[in-house]
Fold these 3 entries.
Entry 1:
Amino acid sequence: SKQAVEASQAFLAAARKYKEAVKQDYVSFAKEKYEMVTAGRSAVLDAENSLQTWGWLPGWTESLENDITASKKRLADLEKELEGKRESSKMMLADAEKEIKAAEEQVELAFHIQLIPSKNQVG
């Protein structure tokens, strides 16, 4: 029926919209995290440069080494978080692709069924 075709087309549109939302979510998340990763890398380099420049001062070496260690840990955590999001987004996109394929098949099926004359129309 025409309603079945429209319903399956609406489902297909929703599946495509979901896929785009997953992509956009990942892109905005990744952009924010990449900026943080870049800043984190700069912080590590700055702390390492400070250690070379000021490490000879009494008490500074340990403090600067602690800064370097903390910066490296934050950086590793960010990179791990980014990788986790990348993996989960890939799985969600794969699921969305399956939904879209199923919806496309449903649209095609509903369209073909619509073309078959019903008993009422025959005779």
Entry 2:
Amino acid sequence: EDGINEDVTGCKYPDDPSALIDELSEKDVGKDVLSSDESKNRFAKALKDAILGIEPELPGPPTIVDLKGLKFQLNKTDPRKAGKIIAEQCPGIFDEKEEDAFKYVLAYNAKNKLPILGWTVDTYLRYKIN
């Protein structure tokens, strides 16, 4: 354990004396995640912070949403793009022909950069519980 701690706390990309980051980036699991110097730097910092007990700063959900600023106009390709993504990620549970409403909600999610679907499901489940 001490050796790992030393490797991680001494590691800073690209001047990593332990070569830990480069070694991980060559493995199948790390190829996509550690594909750039920027991602390797973020990963090295996250490892160091974890060893030192520093909690990451996570972005919180927006507390106020300006409803006037939401974009509800979609072009024809927005729902198609959303449908393609979900069909690739969940091919067994998504019927592209029958899920138009779902594709539109996902397109609104992407266009507004808000988790509208998650909020809708959360609100519905809370309603059902109460």
Entry 3:
Amino acid sequence: ACSTKFLPPFHTQPLKRSGENKKQQDQETKKSNKIMAKLFVGGLSSRTTEESMKLAFSRFGDVKEVIVMKERGFGFVTFEDQEAADKALEETRQELDGSKVDVKPAVSKGSGGDRGGGGGGGNE
């Protein structure tokens, strides 16, 4: 009977020292501590632009990103922190470019359930 031994593959990358791993984890933790908050804004006017939406929502706090889906009548605004988003959520019905808009927490597509609903074309 012939027996063949199989050897495990060699490591081609150098192993990290535990100190390097800890340092990298600390940096990633610091980044993730600053939680950004994304809100859904429904019922946008066809006149709404990213600039006008950013200007309207910046009164609540620092706006990181604005996305306007003009043809779909909704958009998203992302704040630098949850506190600013909470302030915006206190006013669920707001006026923007002549339209009454609904402001709700954004829900990722993967989570299922109610995603904040569509906004329609807005009230021009």
